[in-house]
């Protein structure tokens, strides 16, 4: 089953009582408990003990919302609600790109959103049958009412943190904010929100096509896919209790087609700066992961022919092939046609359409 990209509009999450409902229930008890304290010497011990739970609720009702405002970093990381989270590190990885790390709060609730993805109806769903969910986060401007989505490049749950690569574009507001962040600063963030859901075992081959920061969902997918061999030393030494399983025999082959940077620009995704960048992923998957680098500009048909019809196996895998495309509209259009204005997939046209691929085999990522 594929999960279509979600809207960036926050939806209410019908869960346990919120702090607000807790506070309001306790405030109803505050008047009677203050009467008890007006003359404690006259209070009957039995009556005081009966009122004790109300008093405790009142104190909690005052303390929790107060700490909520004065210590916002104590708040959960949640898809439906912004919280200010501390930035643990920032690093310029090119003249235009910054790598930003934001730890996931240690509470089980924050982690739950990474294990049980937030669905469009506002509920949490179990990940089952080997499903892997690519997720994104929303970052907001503290000054004006805008938010922008950013895709972690890593497996946040395994690493205990969200790592984002953010490009600064000319005149861009949220990019400017992220690029101004320093270690220890706080950033308004919500998430994770599902971008795309995949059952890898349903495919013989997964082809990913990207340019620039559009590689982020694929770096995340590759980070989340099981390793060919268990890597207990990495995950156990971090104490995350999240051990990646060995790749099953039904695992698909992986082929990433990613454009080189413009001449003179840093090839950050191909650097050793981060364990979720290509050299580490190539180490992780070995020859299961093929990486083709193309020149900036339209995706050449030859690269697609090579990925879709490798040598003698021509056509054999076509039914169980998935092509994930994450490109700006001007490059998406000649390759497979653009998404519709309301972000539906639209028909598969362009080179992939001419090669006979359909909406069953191609998924366009925003
Ligand atoms: C699901 C999803 C995930 C995303 N993940 C990432 C990510 O991981 N990293 C990342 O850097 N971005 C990512 N983006 C893009 C990001 O959300 C913003 O659109 C981008 O950062 C620009 O926001 P801004 O507020 O800085 O600029 P804006 O104020 O929105 O734009 C300012 C100007 O820059 C132009 N502009 C916007 N984007 C670009 C661009 N890419 N190149 C050139 N000009 C541009 C606009 O047209 C406008 O004229 C993602 C987008 C989506 C939909």
Automatic annotation (TrEMBL):
Give me the residues that bind FAD, please. Answer: 148-150, 165, 167, 174
> Entry's InterPro entries?
CBR-like, Cbr1-like_FAD-bd_dom, FAD-bd_FR_type, FNR_nucleotide-bd, Riboflavin_synthase-like_b-brl
Keywords annotated in UniProt: FAD, Flavoprotein, Oxidoreductase
The record ties this protein, via SUPFAM superfamilies, to:
Ferredoxin reductase-like, C-terminal NADP-linked domain, Riboflavin synthase domain-like
Domain FAD-binding FR-type as annotated: residue spans: 80-199
As cofactor, the record names: FAD
- Please give the Pfam families that the UniProt record associates with this protein: FAD_binding_6
Chain intervals with Low complexity compositional bias: 21-38
GO MF assignments: oxidoreductase activity
**Region annotation (Disordered) ranges:** 1-44
Please report which protein family the annotation says this sequence is part of.
Belongs to the flavoprotein pyridine nucleotide cytochrome reductase family.
Protein name (record): FAD-binding FR-type domain-containing protein
């Amino acid at each position: 089953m594929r999960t279509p990209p979600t809207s960036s509009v926050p939806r209410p999450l019908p869960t346990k009582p919120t702090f607000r409902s807790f506070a309001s229930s306790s405030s109803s008890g505050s008047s009677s408990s203050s009467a008890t304290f007006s003359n404690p010497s006259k209070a009957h011990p039995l009556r005081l003990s009966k009122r004790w739970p109300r008093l405790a609720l009142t104190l909690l009702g005052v303390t929790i919302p107060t700490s909520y405002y004065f210590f916002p970093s104590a708040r959960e990381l949640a898809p439906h609600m912004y919280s200010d989270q501390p930035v643990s590190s920032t690093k310029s990885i090119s003249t235009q790109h910054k790598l930003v790390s934001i730890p996931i709060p240690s509470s089980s609730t924050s982690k739950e959103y990474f294990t049980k993805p937030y669905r469009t109806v506002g509920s949490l769903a179990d990940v089952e049958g080997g499903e892997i969910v690519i997720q994104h986060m929303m970052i907001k401007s503290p000054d004006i009412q805008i938010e922008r989505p950013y895709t972690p490049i890593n497996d946040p749950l395994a690493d205990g943190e969200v790592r984002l690569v953010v490009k600064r574009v000319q005149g861009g507001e949220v990019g400017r904010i992220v690029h101004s962040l320093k270690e220890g600063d706080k950033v308004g963030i919500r998430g994770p929100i599902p971008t795309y859901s995949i059952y890898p075992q349903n495919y013989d081959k997964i082809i990913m096509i990207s340019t620039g920061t559009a590689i982020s969902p694929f770096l995340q997918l590759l980070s989340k896919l099981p390793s060919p061999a268990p890597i207990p030393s990495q995950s156990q030494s971090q104490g995350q209790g999240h051990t990646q399983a060995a790749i099953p025999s039904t695992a698909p082959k992986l082929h990433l087609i990613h454009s080189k940077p413009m001449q003179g620009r840093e090839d950050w995704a191909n650097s050793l700066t981060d364990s979720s960048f290509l050299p580490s992923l190539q180490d992780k998957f070995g020859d299961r992961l093929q990486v083709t680098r193309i020149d900036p500009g339209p995706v050449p048909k030859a690269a697609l022919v090579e990925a879709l019809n490798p040598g003698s196996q021509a056509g054999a895998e076509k039914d169980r092939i998935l092509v994930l495309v994450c490109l700006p509209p001007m490059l998406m259009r000649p390759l497979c046609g653009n998404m519709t204005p309301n972000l539906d997939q639209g028909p598969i046209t362009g080179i992939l359409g001419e090669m006979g691929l359909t909406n069953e085999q191609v998924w366009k990522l925003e």
